[in-house]
Amino acid sequence: MRIERIATISLIIVTLLWGTTFVVVQNAIAYVEPFAFNAFRFILATLVLLPFLVKRKQKTKLTVKQIVITSGIGFMLFLGYLLQTFGLKYTTSSKSGFITGLCVVLVPVLLYLVYKERSNWSTVIACLIALLGLSFLTLGDSFSVNLGDVLTLIGSVAFAFHIILSGKYTKQMDPLSFTTIQLATVGISSTIFSLIFEDTSVSFSKELWVNPTFIFAVIVTAVFCTSIAFWVQMFAQQHISSTKAALIFIFEPVFAAFTAVLFANETLSIQTIIGGTFIVGGMLLSEVPLPKKRTKEVKNEAI
Per UniProt, which keywords does this protein have (predicted)? Predict the structure, then answer.
């Protein structure tokens, strides 16, 4: 089996795992503050990878520049998860999943704005379709935007930058080192913010650490959806483009919506279904290239 196919299948499995975490995280943050939850999740994920990192002999030593760049990419990941987790306090799992999925549409847009990588008109049209879908999804009967929707949308921008930067820099480093530094950055940043802005007495209370819902959420998200998942993502993005990775990620909001319906007793209204359809359709269209114009030479040959 070709390495590109292995990377693609692996990334699909990772996307499935991420799509199922929205309900798990939403249940957990009912007992613990968002910064604290992310701190426990990413510190545990870092500790899971450290033994593998120590045992692996690096061919080349990490430079200070690589550590700084990777930490910066990790901070983008921190912002994304922070805003997504806070957003879940005010919005539903299905809406959070769909809005987070907008990062797929944002990837080609940001690639052009930052790196001048021009996108075709299909991408522009896709963004407009996705924006229309977002309005259906987030504007209720009162035509008001939920605070959680706004926070999740900003987090989606951070996730888009993380995909782009990971695709550009993961080829320069070992995937395990690249992943571990990022996760450690998220864990440390979350810990600092938790100590400053949250009530730490809740984080270290006996009631929390005997709560099966919280324990389950931390272990599942840390081990399967963070350490393993991001290690696989960094490996996969060494062999496939950021655009293809983004295309695979379009399935995350779909998985999130189905999980919310099956396990969180959420209902998908007609408005939500229409909005989600527009968003997923926009994501798909953003990856479909328009047919190129035929050159005069080709026309002459045809004649």
Answer: Cell membrane, Membrane, Transmembrane, Transmembrane helix
